[in-house]
Amino acid sequence: MSLVSIPPVNTYEDLEGLRISTMPEYVPCYGDAGAIVVEMPIEEYYIAGETGVIDAINWASGIYYYKVGLHELFTHLVDPPMTTPWQGNIIINKDLWDGMPPDLQKILSYAFIQSSMDSWARQYSAYTHYCQYYDMCYLSDEDVAKLEASSRAEWAEWAERGPLAMRAYNLMTEYFAETEEARWYR
User: Fold this and answer.
1) CB contact set of 75 (below 8 Å; sequence gap of 6+)
2) Whose CA is closest to 76, among 135, 122, 151?
3) pLDDT digits (tens, 9 = 90+) for 96-120
4) 3-class DSSP assignment, residue 86
5) What is the fold of 3-181?
6) Longest alpha-carbon distance in the chain
7) In the chain, where the domains are located
8) pTM for this one?
9) How far is residue 2's CA from residue 23's CA, in Å, rounded to a whole number?
């Protein structure tokens, strides 16, 4: 997911006072930076930007903002994107999964991984193309680390809600470590 904004956002400090529409899981990082999180339906983004209700959006990627015309108003695209590569959410009934033979589970697991990788490759290729339609803003590694630290502290609290939450947290923490090691966004 990428942040697009009306004013430029080149530093962590630029987020202070910015009115951002985003999903609940991004509230900690933006709130800690001093931004004001505004919930609203996607359909209202353009008019909300025109009327000054919001200054920025963190909902999709620059590609989708462009496709729906939001780039006309939210002209600044912040890089790196605010999330790691799209993992692809594939949900399957646990009883059904447990009832499958191990060889079929293995085949499906590889297919799910390949599907995610293919999707990310298409997204990244399109992302580099659509950057031309924006005034690009670049956050430093230090500023990105501040945003991530806020979110991860919140996620660690969510992990305490139960064993499945802890498992999800551990899986995502491992995934983030792998993507950071690969420096996927540089």
Assistant:
1) 4, 6, 134, 135
2) 135
3) 999 999 999 999 988 887 877 777 7
4) coil
5) D-Maltodextrin-Binding Protein; domain 2 (3.40.190)
6) 57
7) 3-181
8) 0.75
9) 12
